[in-house]
Design goal:
Length: about 250
């Protein structure tokens, strides 16, 4: 009797057991798809012309998938990722087709650390050495070029400065309305009221009072016309002198 009852129970439950086994398989598949939806990986290849990359995650290598751009509408920006850059591999459909997968690049790593570690400083660095930086706290924008040239604008002080790699300087102070151009010891300083030129120890200033020249000698067409020049064939009287001698 007992064996008969057990067989009857098994027959009654067999369909449910099969159903539960199928549910278990379905749950395993769902878990597999969920685990594949978001993965951290590293770019192993980049095709900028197609806007696609391959991502290595664990022991797996993705097919060619699309990667995000900063903007892709009426306003477009291109920033292609680098081999070795860390990313999130997003499989939004959970399937095995690369059409449903894309790479969200830009995760900092040891190979590509943060360009700025200050919250008020936004920075962009390029592989050739160019660096663009804006400090929103100081209101200062810097552009460092690969050859050592610096271009800087200070919005608070209203000063724009360019310092070239050879040491030459160009600066405009909007508050003072003054422009400076300097190459080693030679310079030109301009403001609304005057222009001052300095070179080799001599100075020329032009302002409302006229022209002021300080230097060891003044020449014109090779002839000394400064305060040390002399006139030949001069006799005191009403006659005019000959041209000055060199």
């Amino acid at each position: 009797m007992r064996s008969l009852i057990e067989r009857m129970i098994q027959q009654a439950l067999s369909s449910h057991v099969e159903h539960l086994a199928g549910v278990g398989d379905a749950l395993n598949e769902v878990q597999r798809q969920l685990s594949n939806m978001i993965r951290v990986g590293v770019l192993s290849a980049v095709d900028p012309a197609q806007g696609r990359c391959r991502v290595k995650h664990g022991d797996c290598l993705s097919p060619w998938v699309r990667y995000f751009m900063p903007a892709a509408g009426d306003v477009r920006q291109a920033r292609h990722p680098s081999v070795g850059e860390q990313c999130l591999l997003l499989n939004y459909g959970g399937g095995d087709s690369s059409a449903q997968t894309m790479a969200l690049c830009g995760l900092p790593s040891d190979g590509f650390p943060l360009a700025s570690v200050e919250g008020h400083v936004s920075a962009t660095e390029y592989p050739d050495g160019l660096r663009y930086q804006h400090d929103s706290q100081r209101k200062v924008t810097d552009i460092h070029y690969s050859d050592g040239t610096l271009h800087q604008h200070d919005a608070d002080k209203k000063v724009t400065l360019t310092r070239f790699s050879d040491g030459a300087v160009q600066q405009y102070d909007a508050a003072a309305q003054q422009m400076l151009c300097q190459v080693t010891s030679s310079s030109i300083v301009m403001d609304p009221l005057s222009i001052t030129l300095t070179a080799g120890g001599s100075t020329l200033r032009v302002d409302a009072a006229g022209i002021t020249l300080n230097g060891p000698m003044v020449t014109h067409a090779g002839i000394n016309i400064g305060n040390s020049h002399v006139h030949p064939n001069v006799q005191k009287g009403v006659a005019k002198t000959d041209p000055p001698e060199g």
